Prior knowledge:
mainly beta
Amino acid sequence: DTGIAKRITMSVMYMDSFQVDTDHDIYDDSLYPEKPELTVTGAYVYNGQEQIAEVSGYDPQTMQIAGATATDAGIYTITVTPSIRWKDFSTDPVTVTWIIEKADPQVTLPVLAAKNGTSLKDIVLPEHFSWKNPDAIVGRQTRFAVIYTPEDSENYNTLELELKIKLIPTITEEEDTQEPTRPPKPSKPNH
């Protein structure tokens, strides 16, 4: 498609009795759009499915578009070019960026218990979890920050979460081995 709406031939007769035929192309201006100002509307978060960016300023009748679909989290560039040319006779592309944000993973916190005075570094966490402050001691404080690093860190955020540790009651050796005391037997009176 060249944008030519129609071609006409004009004949010009001169007094000397010769004729010149010339062809003239009449162009359809509606096929040559102005360069658009592109914007991407909406928010995009990774969901494992292909997503299509909603682009305003793009006219599918007179323009071609590339880069408006993606699946993984990241920054992408949409490129729009004219089907023929822009109104200013150029053909250079117009671009706009769009982003698919990382998603927050679904996390189930582990259930942990420890004795008073235990260091966090001695408490084993499940895979993908780590202590933010492994030197902290379980005691009066039983809530601690853990870092969850997902397996797919390209598409999911690393999270900082609060984990409550259940205190295991301790029984001292003395309390454990001491036998209950009995009251003394009354003495028999002497007669």
